[in-house]
Amino acid sequence: MMSSPPPIAIMRAQPHLLGGKVPPHAVEGEKRRLRALCGKARTVPLPSQNNALCDRLAQHLWMHGRQHRHDKGRALVVGAVWPLPGEVDLRPLCRRLAGYGRLFNVALAETTPAGTALRFRRWQPGSAMVQGRYGTCHPKGIVQRPDVLLVPLVAWDEHGGRLGYGGGYYDRTLAGLFPPGQPVQALGFALESQKVPHVPMGPHDVSLPFIATEMALHATAAAF
Ligand SMILES: Nc1nc2c(c(=O)[nH]1)N(C=O)[C@@H](CNc1ccc(C(=O)N[C@@H](CCC(=O)O)C(=O)O)cc1)CN2
Ligand SMILES: Nc1ncnc2c1ncn2[C@@H]1O[C@H](COP(=O)(O)OP(=O)(O)OP(=O)(O)O)[C@@H](O)[C@H]1O
């Protein structure tokens, strides 16, 4: 007798019944649903939360930058992002990193055509910004390959699962920068309130080893 697929309600409520494997089309649907829910629930970061998060990232990156300078003899290229409305704002962090002189170069994401990886362009305080796709902004500076990526997100889970805006930009970018077998040098950044019990993960999704929030730097299973 042919067995019929489990009802969608079971896939949603109890994905473990499928051995953690959810068909790709179901994952896409789940993500759309979660994106809509999280969009509605989203709160704009308070200045105190934003500052705490930028301080935490600065502290972590400072150590990374010093080690990198010692090992490689050059500045650590940090791939950051200009904020979209309602997102955590990394601009205070970018200004601070740029102020540390030879330890860091800051490069910001340029939103490239759909289906491609992001490109990163050198930013310095006062750099002219140009309007890009989906309301994003990027500088006109030279293209640089980030050594470490700061990854925006809509929702995250304790395993490093990340939900974004649905363009697949960061999964493509992470896969290009850090091929399988290499450590994923990336930190997600978000508020604690953006944490969800489970982000559905598809075959292209890259788990984040660290998520920085206003409360803590969370190391996830992907860090080990
Ligand atoms: N600040 C910031 N820059 C970023 C990202 C991000 O998440 N944050 N991206 C992360 O990948 C890339 C841009 N990706 C995007 C992909 C799709 C849509 C998009 O479809 N927007 C819908 C509204 C989505 C919603 O609000 O739920 C739209 O414009 O209609 C936006 C950004 C690169 N730059
Ligand atoms: N490395 C990849 N190669 C091919 N397709 C990919 C890759 N990464 C993601 N995709 C495809 O891109 C689409 C969107 O992916 P997903 O829903 O994970 O986006 P997202 O991570 O939320 O978006 P973003 O990173 O832009 O914020 C999916 O159809 C997914 O299969």
Automatic annotation (TrEMBL):
Coiled-coil segments on the chain, per record: none
E.C. numbers: 6.3.3.2
Entry GO MF terms: 5-formyltetrahydrofolate cyclo-ligase activity; ATP binding; metal ion binding
The reaction(s) this protein catalyses: (6S)-5-formyl-5,6,7,8-tetrahydrofolate + ATP = (6R)-5,10-methenyltetrahydrofolate + ADP + phosphate
Pfam families assigned: 5-FTHF_cyc-lig
Cell membrane in keyword set: no
Positions contributing to ATP binding: 31-35, 162-170
Top-level class of the enzyme under EC nomenclature: ligase
Protein name (database record): 5-formyltetrahydrofolate cyclo-ligase
Organism: Formicincola oecophyllae
